[in-house]
Automatic annotation (TrEMBL):
GO terms for molecular function: exonuclease activity; RNA binding. This is REXO5 exonuclease. The gene is Rexo5. GO terms for cellular component: nucleus. Transmembrane segments: none annotated.
Length: 713
């Protein structure tokens, strides 16, 4: 919701689903404008972005849209203030993706036990001072000779060295000419198999500075192969059977190919030279070039993605491609030399790696979930490692981002619960600090105990059952010989029917009708209760259950929902009618802004109803009077105020079709446990709603405020 309107979203009805990337677009442009290549979002438009006082994102980590509709009446302020509602497509690692493309910045602890980013902007230069690449090489560009390993580094990292007893039988490449910054670079990579002798080379690739492959050949090992290591080497027994080339042949060819001032480039090249049993004095090792703290090293696959933006060693490939690995190492070294250490340090590789690790952990956790309890992820979606962390972008531009919540982030970027911090403390801190920040993320929490103890599956079952009951009506009594076709025709004029069955357990037959939209069921109750249908005066009512006792209150609140303001529902349309026909028929209605003709999300066929959105509420009221009783192409129309025109309409459809009518029985003990838990949750939700209201009221005008229900899985 924008305090003082600045946001226009053209999404309505079945289009109310957005991706995490679309949310990222919105937040990025709202916070940065045209800085950092921020562009207007593709799915909505922000007007006068430069006038925005700030952006506030409120996160309710354990809650999803299930909780929002289960406790719809308790979210009294939230649903009245926030006009735009969207379903976010399932995404692993959702909260991490919010803070950037998968990376959480390390917040600092405050006296209250809360977590937040520094309240002062962090300059780019002060960040670089602490980067291990910057510390090792400084900020200025250098020639390639500055990155060649020294004799001390060669020794420390177990490179074959001339004159050492350990490597006395190794062959020298003969490249003994002094190196300059214009010396030629060559990429080298080998694949090894385990033999009775140890690791022996079975595949060698050499590429020149232009990436051209000079040598790409299989090698017959001297000893019997014990393990081909096919998953890594890609080598199989069949591949080596016809091979005649021996290690000595490769050594001779390399000596002839390499000029006397050649510089070899590789990733952990010491292993390759040991397998080749060769000594070369001038080496650039990319595993050491892209320095990390504590002697750790980045993998070649990660560096290829993070630095060059390319995928290597893909899962569908059997083993590594040595030519590809050699070329990648060479390109990495060239990038480092051309761009200089300062530019490389700005990539913030540690943070990008943390993002990748976090995504992998999340995927593994999802994989361990029972099949029925996990959301299908977009498996083919590649990790977006090329974009900088969202909060880091803000800090670089001199803004003051703020992160407050009940969680701290450990060194791997995973959220750890901090139970000593209450929502009340978070609110108090937010009221003080949010006005000082241009971008704030506030995390409230229900508490982790509410995830397991409240039996989410049963909660989902109860919400689904209640929705089904609200969509269902019973009509009757009829006589034994009543015309079912006439009854169906009359009730279908209220809206699309999902199922119709005859109830024969009663003294006289009744019909049970389940509609696809709430408005249809409500119209049937309002228009046909006490009416004459198929020659019988009937009663129309919803099922009477404990959960349905507040149905009338819920219907009234849905009708007053800010999302349904100026929206009406129209039923009784013929199947043959098109959207163009409707546009022409309703063109005379004043202030008509939008028309939405619902479609079956599986078949794509449109329903016999539509929603009309008007610019002014009064225009919607006037339209209701005109449309009721209106005949369109021989069909008499019925209309009423909308109850579920946007986000809820799609959600009901999904719940309806995923759950169907086959609902399992819940034992009394579980029901009692769930009931007790619900009472506790209701109180907590009411408090959260009040906290959000207080926070919202404290915001300056022209503040974009977003509330997220990311869900548990």
């Amino acid at each position: 919701q924008e305090k003082s309107s600045c946001l226009s979203a053209a999404l309505f009805g079945e289009d109310c689903e957005i991706s995490r990337d679309q949310l990222y677009e919105l937040l990025k442009f709202a916070a940065l404008g045209k800085c950092h290549n921020a562009a207007q979002p593709s799915w909505c438009r922000i007007y006068r972005q430069s006038h925005l006082a700030g952006v506030v994102v409120v996160v309710l980590p354990e809650m999803s849209q299930l909780h929002f509709y289960k406790f719809y009446l308790q979210f009294k302020h939230l649903r009245k203030v926030f006009r735009h509602r969207f379903t976010l497509t399932p995404s692993a690692n959702f909260l991490a993706s919010l803070y950037g493309e998968g990376a959480n910045p390390k917040p600092q602890n405050t006296a209250q036990g809360l977590t937040s980013t520094s309240s002062e902007p962090i300059s780019k230069s002060s960040d670089l001072q602490h980067d291990p690449i910057f510390q090792k090489y400084g900020g200025k560009k250098r020639g390639l000779t500055s990155y060649i390993l020294t004799s001390e580094e060669l020794k420390k990292n177990y490179y074959p060295i001339k004159g050492s007893i350990r490597w006395k039988d190794y062959v020298c490449t003969g490249c003994d000419k002094q190196r300059t910054d214009s010396s030629p670079l060559f990429g080298l990579d080998c694949e090894m198999c385990l033999t009775a002798k140890g690791n022996e080379v079975t595949y060698v690739s050499l590429v020149d500075a232009q990436g051209q492959c000079l040598l790409n050949e299989l090698v017959k090992p001297q000893s019997e192969v014990v393990n081909y290591r096919t998953s890594f080497s890609g080598i199989t027994e069949e591949m080596l059977l016809p091979v005649k080339t021996r290690l000595s042949d490769i050594q001779t060819r390399l000596k002839k190919m390499l000029p006397r001032d050649a510089v070899l480039v590789g990733h952990s090249l010491n292993n390759d030279l040991q397998a080749l049993e060769m000594i070369h004095p001038s080496v650039i090792d990319t595993s050491l070039l892209f320095a990390r703290r504590g002697g750790r090293r980045f993998k070649l696959k990660f560096l290829a993605k993070a630095v060059l933006g390319k995928e290597i060693q893909c899962e569908e490939m059997v083993g590594h491609d040595p030519a590809e690995d050699a070329r990648t190492a060479l390109e990495l070294a060239q990038f480092f030399i051309e761009q200089g250490p300062a530019k490389v340090a700005e990539l913030n590789l540690e943070m990008l790696l943390r993002a990748e690790n976090l995504a992998e952990v999340s995927e593994k956790k999802d994989a361990l979930q029972p099949q029925g309890c996990r959301v299908q992820q977009q498996l083919n979606e590649p990790p977006h490692l090329s974009k900088p962390c969202f909060l880091e972008c803000l800090q670089v531009t001199g803004q003051k981002p703020l992160l407050l919540g009940k969680q701290e982030l450990d060194s791997s970027g995973l959220c750890q619960s901090n139970p000593s911090t209450s929502n009340k403390q978070i609110l108090q801190k937010a009221l003080e600090d949010v006005p000082l920040s241009t971008f704030s993320i506030i995390q409230f929490s229900l508490g982790p105990e509410n995830i397991s103890s409240c039996l989410l599956a049963e909660l989902c079952e109860k919400v689904g059952s209640k929705l089904t009951d609200m969509l269902t009506i019973y009509a009757g009594p009829f006589e034994e010989n009543f015309c079912l076709k006439s009854v169906k025709k009359e009730f279908r004029r209220c809206g699309p029917i999902q199922s119709l069955t005859v109830v024969t357990e009663t003294y006289q037959p009744y019909v049970c009708i389940q509609y696809e939209v709430l408005e249809a069921a409500q119209l049937a109750v309002e228009r046909l209760n006490g009416a004459e249908v198929a020659g019988f005066c009937i009663k129309v009512q919803r099922p009477v259950t404990a959960a349905m006792l507040d149905c009338d209150v819920l219907i009234k609140e849905l009708e007053l929902d800010v999302e349904n303001e100026g929206v009406i529902y129209v039923a009784g349309l013929k199947q043959s009618i098109t959207e163009k026909d409707l546009q022409e028929e309703f063109s005379q209605l004043k202030d008509l802004e939008m028309l939405f003709l619902p479609k079956d999300l599986q078949s794509g066929k449109h329903r016999n109803c539509c929603f009309l959105k008007f610019q002014k509420s009064q225009s919607a009221v006037d339209a209701l009077e005109v449309i009721n009783g209106w005949t369109m192409k021989g069909s008499k129309l019925r209309s009423r105020n909308a109850l579920a025109s946007g986000h809820l309409w799609r959600w009901i459809w999904q719940m309806n079709h995923s759950n169907g009518k086959q609902r399992g029985k819940i034992f009394y003990k579980k029901m009692q446990q769930l009931s007790d838990c619900e009472q506790d949750l209701k109180k907590k939700v009411k408090k959260l709603d009040n906290y959000i209201q207080k926070l919202y009221r404290s915001l300056q005008n022209n503040t974009l405020c977003v509330v997220l229900f990311p869900g548990v899985n």
